[in-house]
Amino acid sequence: MARKKITAPVIDDWSNLTEVDRAEAIKNHPRWYQENIATPKLRQSFFDFAKANLSEDDFTLVRAGTPFITDLDGALARCIEDGYDHGPYVRRLLTKRIPQIISLVQEKQKEKAELDEILGRIPSNITVKTLSIQERIADQTRFIIGHLEAEIDTFLADKCKKSKLDAKKFLVHHDVKVPQAKLIIEFLDTNLAEIKELLERKDDQLTEAYSHLTKSQQKKFYDFLYSLKYATLQRIDSVKQTRKPRKRKAKTPQQLVANLRYLDKSEDGKLTSIDPANIVGATQLWVYDTKTRFLFHYQAHIGLSVKGSTLQDFDPDVSTSKKVREQYTDGIIADVLSGGKVKLRRIMPNINAKDKEVTGRINKNQIILRAIK
Predict the structure, then answer these.
(1) 89 and 219 assigned to the same domain
(2) Dihedrals phi, psi of 129, to nearest 5 degrees
(3) Where in the sequence is the domain holding 341, given as residue range(s)?
(4) What is the CB neighbour count within 10 angstroms for residue 97?
């Protein structure tokens, strides 16, 4: 029985589409090619694109950079080869990926030439490429990061809707080891730093570059990148546990908060702290200082923990505190105690006071108002 031929989905009337419509129509094409076309064929599409757009010398360098070429590079080239001359794909290949590959090859050639000179070797027309362990790890990681960049591009193209990527399965599938995971985290940290700066509106160029996303979508993009980082951190823990099981016994929430200093009840008896064990695993925590009248709002992506009298694992970028005027204290605390997600989200922005950074320290003057998991 003949095997059924797999054909790529067709975009109708491509030449008459607007740029906006083209971006929407083609957003899932690279993923389809990566899933259905073999790596050698994708790589050949990339070579064909490079040969048509580069000088002979530059193309020779690109051919030497085969280990640095990812499936995403080939998928974008395949889109263009099939007649979908999408501007962002062309620019990505010509102004980002190809220069990167050429630069990596030139760096390797320079290192080899310097080593040959030191050792007094006579240059030969036949060279055997031997990579160190570190170089192999770096090359493997570039390949994995190339796939992650494809997922990130897809997430942005989908206007930051929920991603279909299961990061944990992705890392397991690529058998990511600890050294590779650390390089992936460096890549994600660079992107997270950029989006954090974007959200703080400190760079006009960044604001313009991401102007196609709403502020809500920009925040979702930050959370998506953070989720990839968290999955990678979990992968490191998982690999270490597989290699050598951890003997340390996990503490219960009650044990973790045993030394926590806090105020059980206010002097007037109006406010009473919740069970501090509820802090462990919470994604939000509200604390009120009866002495300074500061309201603290802690947020965590992976759940709070406690060490001594200090909160652990909160996100300092989104956690904050503000001083509450005495006449508004009762109303604001009432909102904290009873408010839903929308009301809670508005509490801190509506307090007319300066934001103050939080340290995570809990003291004997502070009431633990509410923990949300």
Answers:
(1) yes
(2) -80, 115
(3) 253-372
(4) 22
Helix axes 178-199, 133-157, angle to 10 degrees: 40
Cα distances (angstroms) measured from residue 113 to each of 11, 133, 313, 316: 48, 20, 48, 47
Going by the DSSP 8-state scheme, the letter that residue 265 receives in this structure is B
Residue-wise pLDDT for 272-301, tens only, equals 999 999 999 999 999 999 999 999 999 998
Is residue 8 in a domain? no
- Global pTM reads 0.38
Q: What is the DSSP letter of 199?
A: H
65 and 206 housed in the same domain: yes
Query: Cα dihedral angle (236, 66, 80, 195), rounded to 10 degrees?
Result: 30
User: How many whole angstroms separate alpha carbon 188 and alpha carbon 199?
Assistant: 16
288 is a domain residue: yes
The SS3 call for residue 366 is: strand
Q: In the chain, how many domains are there?
A: 2
Number of H helices, E strands in the chain: 15, 6
Question: CA 209 to CA 51: how far, in whole Å?
Answer: 30
The residue type found at 207 is T
Q: Would you say residue 185 lies in a domain?
A: yes
Which residues are 368's β-sheet partners?
287
Q: Residue 315: enclosing H or E segment and its boundaries?
A: none
Tokens at 106, concatenated: 């030139």
Instruction: Tell me which residue of 104, 86, 93 sits closest to 45, measured CA to CA.
Output: 93
- For 207-241, the pLDDT digits (tens) are 877 788 888 998 999 999 999 999 999 998 888 87
Determine, yes or no, domain membership for 4. no
